[in-house]
Amino acid sequence: MPVLLRTDIQKNRAYLTLAGLVADEELRQGVDQYIAQLGTLRPGFTTVTDLSSCRPLSQTGVAEVRRAAQACVGRGIQATARVVQQTTVAMLQFQRVSREEGYTAFTVPSLMEAERLLDEEVRLSLGAHAQAAAALP
Fold it and tell me: Measured by CB atoms within 10 angstroms of the end CB, which terminus of the chain is less buried, N or C?
């Protein structure tokens, strides 16, 4: 299956894998399911998008990526990490959308690196919030 989804409630993280050539309708259904899964996460969630074997998307597919990105922003995404093996057209399509939607997107070579980077991003963010709260009168 070209679209695979899962969530980790404990880590407050969503995972999306796109593999091979993803048909527009298949991506639309996957994005619908992805958006539904976001409802199980708390604001400040992170995402991992594995594009390591994804082929370029059609214009309709890019519109679906934008719909998913807008849902992420609307639900309070903190950051995302994209797993890529090399610079691909699909990765550039995703990067453009996240930049336009205004959220942080890291590009990494492996799932393990994505996990490490996002865990560190959350840890740093929590530390900054704790420092700000301690400074309040």
Answer: C
Three-state DSSP class for residue 96: helix
Report residue 94 as tokens: 């995703």
Residue with structure tokens 């959308």? 97
Helices (H), the chain: 24-38, 59-74, 89-101, 111-134
**Fold classified for 3-134:** Transcription Regulator spoIIAA (3.30.750)
Q: Where are the domains of the chain?
A: 3-134
First to last CA, the chain: 54
pLDDT tens for 38-97 read 999 999 999 999 999 999 999 999 999 999 999 999 999 999 999 988 767 888 888 888
Angle formed by the axes of helices 59-74 and 24-38, nearest 10°? 0
Handedness of CA 54, 57, 61, 65 (dihedral sign): positive
| pLDDT at position 1 over 70 | no
